[in-house]
Protein: WOXG protein
Amino acid sequence: IGLRGVGSQHPPSFTMQEQVMTEEQLETLRRQISVYATICRQLVHMHRAVVLQMDPMSGMPLGQAIAFDSLMGMAGQRVTARQRWTPSQVQLQILEKIFDQDKGTPSKQKIKEITAELSQHGHISETNVYNWFQNRRARTKRKQQIVTSNSGESEMDNSLDSSKGKQAKTDENIVQETQ
Amino acid sequence: IGLRGVGSQHPPSFTMQEQVMTEEQLETLRRQISVYATICRQLVHMHRAVVLQMDPMSGMPLGQAIAFDSLMGMAGQRVTARQRWTPSQVQLQILEKIFDQDKGTPSKQKIKEITAELSQHGHISETNVYNWFQNRRARTKRKQQIVTSNSGESEMDNSLDSSKGKQAKTDENIVQETQ
DNA sequence: AATATATGAATGAACG
DNA sequence: CGTTCATTCATATATT
Structure:
């Protein structure tokens, strides 16, 4: 279920020299490792149970066994219900691209088009798109203001940049539950 | 790395009473799990290292690409850098005081002043201050709601203005997570 | 080490 | 549109 893919995508093919990965590739790698890490934590537990004695399957109230099965399904996906829309990776990329090119474009009827396109990659409503652009613009501007305000702060201040420096979010790659 | 196969194997449908796997199969399974467990421990560590990726020393926002080598290097070491701001005792006191006196005053341009003042006691950015107040307000409110919601016994009058019809109107895209 | 809690940060949605 | 709210995520810290 979530196990394939480590190598299926741009095999980074690193030579031992000075190979460089793009942020995207790195991000993908992170996500995948994260998935494996999750699976692995479970496996470690399971292993412990197994080693600790009995048949993992028959002995206990099949709790462990079941865990393994459902494990695969939830590997990279938080099973927590999502109550608010969250753009998928693909959707986000598209949105960012549009935002960049049409910079100050307060979308209007294009919202429909964009929505239409994005809905091929997960459910989404026009309101979502609208809000997204609103927020994007507002936050970009606010960040700018802050940046321009600080003058000589040579204190090697920590970066408050947060534009796209997303941390690896261990989920958001797999199936988007639609209902 | 051949992780596949672990899950591809249809989980033996076990019943409560009889064991459907032979001892051999079980043994094989154990061995496999054991191996995976080992691999996974490594992966977990690696993942942790990668996720913590940041650069406390040069502060440079690592551009579009990052060398794989450095990635590998990080996997081995514990990047113990703190990647999120933490207010010092002094800063916290000041923040609390300001929060108390200007209670409902959602700071706006005062952020700058506050930041300026606090930066005399350690690293801090306007964003930090902004976030701090946001969180402070939100969490204070939530705590109160919890208190008022269940203590309704004889104190029926101390509810704050509940006139805020702030209700999530998630009527269209609520995703019902079943499981 | 496993779990619980506190909290800085990110972000979708709503308000004026 | 600029601000603010509400919820969620991820990490830091504390506890057993």
About this structure: Residues 51-52, 82-84, 86, 106, 108, 134, 137-138, 141-142, 164, 166, 168 of chain B lie near DNA strand D (CB under 10 Å from a C1'). Residues 1-17, 53-82, 154-179 of chain B have pLDDT under 50 and may be disordered.
